[in-house]
Task: structure prediction
Amino acid sequence: MSSHPLKDVIAAADRAIGAEDFDTLMDFYADDATLVLAPGLVATGKAQILKAFLGVAEIFDHRLAVSPGKIEVVESGDTALVHREAIFDTVTPEGEAVSTTRRGTCVFRHTPEDRWLCVVDNGYGHGLLGRC
Amino acid sequence: MSSHPLKDVIAAADRAIGAEDFDTLMDFYADDATLVLAPGLVATGKAQILKAFLGVAEIFDHRLAVSPGKIEVVESGDTALVHREAIFDTVTPEGEAVSTTRRGTCVFRHTPEDRWLCVVDNGYGHGLLGRC
Result:
């Protein structure tokens, strides 16, 4: 699955988060997309998702970079289920660099215009089920 | 998310696997559904998916029961991303009962006829990415 076009899409969305280019970031989401903010708490639609990302940027004091790790895509018709690693790099107020890798799950929809739009974005992956 | 109708759908599909009622089981899948057989190996469409389940029944000597554990559903429009536990109970040739719990990921599509059809069924969940 090394050459799937969704890998480039995901990498570009991650770069937009780090650059705080939220106009570009919102282009990756479908109008009715759902973003999981925490287990049991979601943002639905671009307006709510934008607010969530603005909040995240604030929480990390505008020092958050995201990059993709391993990505696996399973397609069915115009739907793609993505399992992905996301590597979060930030700097604490004390100046310490911190890197965290999380495994998330997303659903993308392929549009007639040959674009992939994120429909569900769950950065918690199976963490929604609690610990193993 | 304790009352989501997909919980009943998933429980009924699990029962159909144990009962080897494959006609009923196939009704849960969309025509273009993809089932992950192993990392990097998928069955696409009902004919291939049916063959895969027939093979699984054979491998487990017709002694496989599946039941749902924890299930979390994230919806967006007519799409639902499901994280689920599946509890597999079987009996070895030596007569020993074995129970295994796995965490899988599925995508369901809601149809205009008010049905949920499984579009992607990945019993491996994040296992597709290898070990943490």
Chain A has a mean pLDDT of 94. Chain A has one domain: 5-123. The first strand of chain A starts at residue 29 and ends at 38.
